[in-house]
Predict the structure.
Amino acid sequence: MRAYAKLARRFMDVLRIRGGNALRGEVAVGGAKNACLPLLAATLLTDEPCVLRNVPELSDSRFMREILSHLGAEIVSAGKNSWRVEAREIQPKTPYELVRKMRASICVMGALVGRLKRAEIPLPGGCVIGPRPIDLHIKGLKKLGCEIENLEGSMHIDASKARGAYIFLGGRYGSTVTGTSNILMASVLTPGTTQIDSAACEPEIVDLCNMLVKMGARISGIGSPTLKIQGVERLHGCEHSVIPDRIEAGTLLLCGAITRGDVAVRGARSEHLGAFLDKMHEAAIPLEVLGDDCIRVRGDLAGAFKPIDIVTMPHPGFPTDLQAQFTALLAMTQGISIVTERIYPSRFMHVPELQRMGAEIAIEGPSAIIKGVASLSGAPVMASDLRASAALVLAGLAARGETWVQRIYHLDRGYEKFEVQLSKLGADICRLKDTDMPSEFMENG
Ligand code: EPU
């Protein structure tokens, strides 16, 4: 067993980055992972075919495809980055092996409840970025009149008596993104009027509402914290294009800034990135907004970046999914910056790895106190989750010498061929096998 485990580790992909190149050029972001997953789940709400365009080629999209297939949907390609999903007949049981691979698979729960009036789904369990309870999802379903039993680690949901209801969905960390998607999808086919207060306002929720409306759902208040849903009897198929990934866009803008480059990011929508762009301005990073769909960062024109304070919050606040990446930039910004996590108070797994590269960061409760240093130095580092991996790539791009980022399967969950994007912009980055690493850097048994 140990021998196999060792063998498996030997063939993991790693990124080798030789830092110091200023990135230059134009790059386009893909469809948003966090929009695409609930949109795929929404196709289960109708027996008619739906065509989703701009689906990102990510391991998370592939996991979702597996889950939909398991539930009975037929998925075929409808052209580049386009999927045609037909869920003519589906069944309610989602297996643990699939849910375990991807926490976000919980977003099929609302769609199954809406369409079949029953669902059987395993509780998703913990996650490296902190506790990720689903109590608010359950509260919302119970308010709708669902009966829920927990048997052998799975929730058995009976929605046969569900009716529209008033649901306050806020929790101690504010609104819940996937919880809002689930309750939305459960209520669009539930008789009566449902009102969700303290609903998440993220662009990904707006995208889901827009698709549901195309399918015949009746939703008002889209984009606000109060959503009103008038249940309808059935929904029909539609064609929909996933919004561009604002987190990928923000990450690429930070790559341009940290390398003192000049990068235009197509698909970067300022309406989705308000709080992030505000912090870029405060940090004295020059930006040009080129129309509705493109932002250019001019790291080459910047003087010294300024230290800043960031507090993550639900949208329209600063997104937690850009916290780690901005922390990497602030680690190289002279002066003291403070980054506080209000969504996942322990989401600082990237910090010990940045420290290995010479960053001076202290964690105090939910805050990282960053004393910016003049330069970082390349090192072998370990990715622990998706956004932490992106932060390590950013640091590697700007560091002196060679950085090896290991366990990049985390990165592949949310960034489509990230190293290819960065190479085209002039980065010295390549994907290798961990057997290519200097032997002293390899993970040992
Ligand atoms: N929360 C509860 N109870 C619940 C649900 C959430 O207390 O029932 C808490 C969470 O523990 C957290 C906060 O509320 O403190 C927000 O959680 P939320 O439910 O909004 O997160 P999520 O829907 O599970 C999505 C994204 C995350 C992103 C968060 C916050 C997807 C698939 N995932 O997660 O994305 O960080 O919203 O914006 O949409 C990522 O892409 O790297 C990622 C982790």
